[in-house]
Specification:
Elements: H1 9-14, H2 18-37, H3 42-71, H4 75-106, H5 109-115, H6 117-130, H7 136-161, H8 165-195, H9 200-240, H10 249-281
Helix pairs in contact: 2-3, 2-4, 3-4, 3-8, 3-9, 4-8, 4-9, 6-8, 7-8, 7-9, 7-10, 8-9, 9-10
């Protein structure tokens, strides 16, 4: 496959920033194909096509990480090795996020509505939940429980489909991009209404503000989901290879359990930032 040949896990570990540009390319091609080919369901097609391009590197990475669990038993070393995969996957996610956001901002409103229709519906549902008069503490636990639910599905998809967690992560990238795009357009309209036009500096200021509003809590949240996806995927590969019949499978279970625990810690941090810090700053 042409897109698959762009990069491999070993190269990605050595040059993690390449994954950011890979994310830009994969998602942009998915956007263009969705617009050109599909009459209905463009918003889901762009997620599916992005995932389709990403599955090979995701699955090959899981196989490499599972081999490390079998070969090494020192947990601190394994976490250091896993962090390399997490780093380039987070950069891949940021590539998706930046790409989807730019397409959302610069496409005409009619195309944006078609391309991100399902994502808009998801944001509307979320807003209804968090604006029903709950206290900050209640909102914190509400968001945390929702994020824990997403983590559970990352584990589930990764276990049953190997690289399946990337589906949920790509969907989240498109939803966050839609939220950023909405905020950007709203702020830009306010500036134009007050001043009459928007300068280049205004575009830069609003763009930075829009990104910072969501990226602070999105990064630890996505790291958590990648930890969960990695844990479920490693166990999935071990089962496929019948490594569960070996003594090393205990190391795999221990390592995956630690990854899940770290994921929960990152989700707590993300929910705290989203509820108690982001509203103060933005």
């Amino acid at each position: 496959m042409t897109l698959e040949s762009l990069i491999n896990p070993l190269k990605a570990e050595r040059q993690p920033w390449d994954m950011f540009f890979v994310g830009l390319v994969y998602s942009s091609i998915a956007v263009l194909l969705s617009l050109l080919i599909f009459d209905d369901g463009k918003s889901l097609a762009l997620v599916f096509l992005t995932v389709l391009a990403t599955v090979p590197i995701m699955y090959n990475t899981l196989k490499i990480e599972e081999k490390k669990d079998i070969k090494f038993d020192k947990e601190s070393f394994l976490l250091k090795e896993h962090s390399k995969a997490i780093t380039f996957f987070v950069l891949l996610f940021i590539g998706f996020l930046v790409s989807f956001t730019l397409w959302y901002i610069f496409l005409p409103s009619t195309l944006t509505h078609e391309l991100f229709f399902s994502q808009q519906q998801a944001i509307t549902r979320i807003n209804k939940i968090v604006t029903t008069g709950f206290s900050s503490t209640d909102t914190f636990f509400l968001i945390l429980m929702n994020n824990m639910r997403v983590l559970f599905f990352c584990l589930l998809f990764a276990f049953f489909y190997g690289a399946g967690a990337i589906l949920i992560l790509t969907w989240n990238a498109s939803v966050i991009a839609t939220a950023i795009g909405n905020f950007f357009r709203t702020q830009l309209e306010n500036v134009v209404r007050e001043v009459g036009s928007a300068s280049l500096s205004a575009y830069f200021h609003i763009g930075t503000l829009s990104l910072m509003r969501y990226i602070f809590h999105a990064i630890p949240e996505i790291i958590a989901y990648f930890f969960g996806g990695l844990a479920g995927g490693i166990i999935s590969v071990a089962v496929i290879r019948h490594d569960f019949r070996t003594k090393q499978f205990q190391n795999i279970v221990l390592d995956s359990s630690l990854l899940i625990l770290l994921a929960i810690v990152f989700l707590i941090i993300a929910a705290f930032i989203e509820v108690f810090i982001t509203p103060v700053l933005f």
